[in-house]
């Protein structure tokens, strides 16, 4: 994912209020670990949350897309950025807090991978550290066979992205066609995205298995809810 679409990702998502979302996450984390704590944003993408969280925490980012991280590096100079996958990344340190936002946890698309990802993430948390996860759609909210058209119509950038939602068992599948026009050329490419569909109860059980105690109240950012917890044992 994002090898070619990274350059238009922010334009397609400019309607999202990352500043407000980061402020809400910051308030949650400061109530648990305090201001100035170390924080790793897992699946940080182009750094839209990091640019705001850096004012309250000692932040670092991680993403599996080198192309997305290149944009994050321009947006967030001086912030350590790491290439890595949810399930397998290994950093030689632990953090006071960790975030995985905008549904990115669902890139661990199977129940086994969800367990692997959460266990790995919690293993990078200090005891008592905070974990904030913004989940993806639950199975009952996913709608199959829905045509989707997203676009950007700027003076120097035109983007058309189209796909039809579909489901393969417990996985939502998006085979996306992009048509991108810039001053020099018009290009067409396709990318495929697969995101696991988990119920709230499945998330809660996976978090418990990973050694996380989930708070009773979670709040919301972009309509998917939040899962907030603390690491309760060494993992």
Strand order of the largest sheet: 3-2-1-4-5-12-11
Please tell me the overall pLDDT.
96
Q: Count of DSSP helices?
A: 6
- Class by SSE composition: alpha/beta
Shape: globular
CATH homology group of the largest domain: Vaccinia Virus protein VP39
> SSE order, as H and E?
HHEHEHEEHEEEEEEHEE
- Provide the gyration radius in Å: 18 Å
Distance between the termini: 30 Å
CATH fold name of the largest domain: Rossmann fold
Question: What is the class of the largest domain in the CATH system?
Answer: Alpha Beta
Helical content band: 25-40%
What is the tally of beta strands? 12
* Low-pLDDT residue intervals, each spanning 5 or more residues: none
Strand content: 25-35%
Number of domains as seen in the coordinates: 2
> What is the CATH architecture descriptor of the largest domain?
3-Layer(aba) Sandwich
The biggest sheet amounts to: 7 strands, mixed
What does the oligomeric state look like here?
single chain
